[in-house]
Amino acid sequence: MTATTLEGMLAPMRILAIDDLVESRSAMKKMLRILGANHVDIAMDGDEATAFINHNSYDLVISDYNLGRGRDGQQILEEARFTHKLKATATFVMLTGENAMDMVMGAIEYEPDDYITKPFTIDVMRKRLNRILKVKQELHIINQAVDTDSKDAVLKLCDEQLVQKPRLALRIKRIKGRTLISMNRYQDALDLFQEVADERPVNWAMLGIATCQFHLNQLDESETTLHKTIHEHPKYVQCFDLLSKIHLKRKQTKKAQFDLMQAAQISPKQVLRQMELGRLAYANQDHEVAEKAFRQSVKLARYSCYRSVKNYLFYAKSLQHKLSESNGRDSRKASTEIFKTLDEARALYRESDDSHFETYVIESTTYNLMGRDADAAAAANKAAGLLEHMPTPTSGQQISMAQAYLATKQHAKAQDLLGVVDARRDLSLHDRRELERTKEGISEHVVRQYTTEINDKAIEYFERGQLSQAIDLLNQATSYKEAGIAVLLNAMQAKVTYMDQKGATKTLLNDVKDLVKRIGDIPPSDERYSRWQKLNKSYQRLKRTAR
Q1: Which residues are modified to 4-aspartylphosphate (predicted)?
Q2: What pLDDT, on the 0 to 100 scale, is given for residue 108?
């Protein structure tokens, strides 16, 4: 049987009260007890509150918005809803000072069920809780379906409840509209939101219209709707987020960045927004904004569900523009912060080879920008060791490694790895472009020098009669198109000598045939002409004997 009094509703509930001031926590708990609550936990800050929510199932959470340092009340709500630790059937009430009400009402991703403006009396608390908990009771059956992700059931129940409870039409239509969007039924959702807006242009309905227009590729209409909504509700932050997406779709990255900067100014504690702002600013080479946004994302995400190694990697990269070989004050400060950030990432993600690989690539480029070539090469080699043991490295990781090789003047290794990437069949358009761009950075002179070094080692094997080892090395050297005629002739020599001793094989004869083509005609004036003639005659003889 459904309770009809506030005392009856509160008595069985598990409740969490959150406030950073001890007097306020005590007063809130006392009020709730007087009103009929039997199970009340209290938390003194956002971290403690999140820990409580993660380990308990609460029916009602009442939180102050401003909790001092760390998470605020909105962040607690966002994370709890995002992780589904706080069910849709549960109630979240936000307490806020009157001077902050406009900001709180606009800066919302997941909205509270109700607000109470501080200071308040027990009578105010009684009236507000009584009203919202009764509404929650009436919507319980719909929210149960939301919690089980039964979208078709949600839509059916919404239609039924709209007939039975017309006074709750706005709340029910809002749930239905969100559900339709989650099902990609954008035209149906648009029709619903437009119906609401025609009766009463509430902000969420206007945002719903703009969202559907965006997904239906009606970008001009969506932008117009958003500007109209922002004019009426200047701090409705999601409007700026959607404007940014519109400008991104039009490839107007600077306008998209400006939109997100406005959103971040209204609501600075949303991790995902700070990450997106950082990425946009970084792409726009707005280093100051990128650094600030990524620093904020690391700070905010450190103890949240949004924490990711990407927060740390992007922040480290955003600081690199301050590095210089002169190693002045700004460069030293930036490098210290980069290495500290990378160390923290490695400690937090110690089991992830992928994460460690990324940190060593960034460490290598950092040392490179500082002019510390030996340290840069050492970090690149650590990254290479990790890449080698990855069972299925991505093309992006391989290209990053090739770029690190190039930066540390290991051009031949870069070319080897880029050859592997080039043979992949799963390259995205972005990776293909990045591959071609990276290829352009390979120095022909350095690769030729590398093949000469391999050639010298092969000669040592050849002179000791270790022909198989010499051939293996020369195969490696001749795999580069930059290999010189001397290297190609040595490869011919080793293979012809091997066949004279062991007998001709089809594979080796084909190898020599390819070498002959690559060498081409050597003029009689060239000092290598006589040797070329002798090797060619030996090759022709071996061909005849093999028939």
Answers
A1: 64
A2: 53
Per DSSP, the three-state class of 41 is strand
pTM for the model stands at: 0.77
Quick check: helix, strand or coil at residue 116? strand
Strand partners, 95: 64, 116
User: Distance from first CA to last CA of the chain, Å, rounded?
Assistant: 97
- 164's tokens: 């039975």
- The answer to whether residues 96 and 118 touch, using CB atoms and an 8 Å cutoff, is yes
Domain annotation covers residue 412:
no
Residue 113 has pLDDT above 80, yes or no: yes
Query: Domain for residue 539, yes or no?
Result: yes
Indicate the Cα dihedral angle 135, 138, 141, 142, nearest 10°: -50
- Among candidate residues 138, 158, 189, the one where a domain is terminated: 138
Residue 445 has pLDDT above 70, yes or no: no
Q: Which residues have CB under 8 Å from 297's CB, separation 6+? A: 271, 274, 275, 278, 311, 314, 315
What are the tens digits of pLDDT across the range 309-350?
A: 999 999 999 999 999 998 899 999 999 999 999 999 999 999
Per the listing, tokens 């009602």 go with 60
The CA distance from 225 to 210, in Å, is 6
With a pLDDT cut of 90, the percent of the chain lying above it is: 75
Domain that holds residue 46: 6-138
Residue 470: the pLDDT is 94
Domain count, the chain: 2
Give residues with Cβ within 8 angstroms of 524, minimum separation 6.
none
Give Rg (Cα) of the chain: 34
CATH code, 133: 3.40.50.2300
CATH code of the domain covering residue 490: 1.25.40.10
Q: Give the domain-ending residue among 93, 114, 138.
A: 138
Average pLDDT over residues 181-188: 97
Q: Mark out the alpha helices in 56-113 (DSSP H runs).
A: 73-82, 101-106
Does some domain include residue 481?
Answer: yes
List pLDDT tens digits, range 248-305: 999 999 999 999 999 998 888 788 899 999 999 999 999 999 999 999 999 988 877 7
Q: Which two tokens stand for residue 195?
A: 């119906």
Q: Kindly tell me if the per-residue pLDDT of 97 is higher than 80.
A: no
* Residue 300 Rama label (left phi>0; alpha psi -120 to 50; beta): alpha
Which residues have C-beta within 8 Å of that of residue 350, sequence separation ≥ 6? 356
Which residues are CB-neighbours of 384 under 8 A, at least 6 positions away? 401, 404, 405, 413
Helix (H) or strand (E) holding 265: helix 253-266
Per-residue pLDDT reduced to its tens digit, 502-524:
999 999 999 999 999 999 988 88
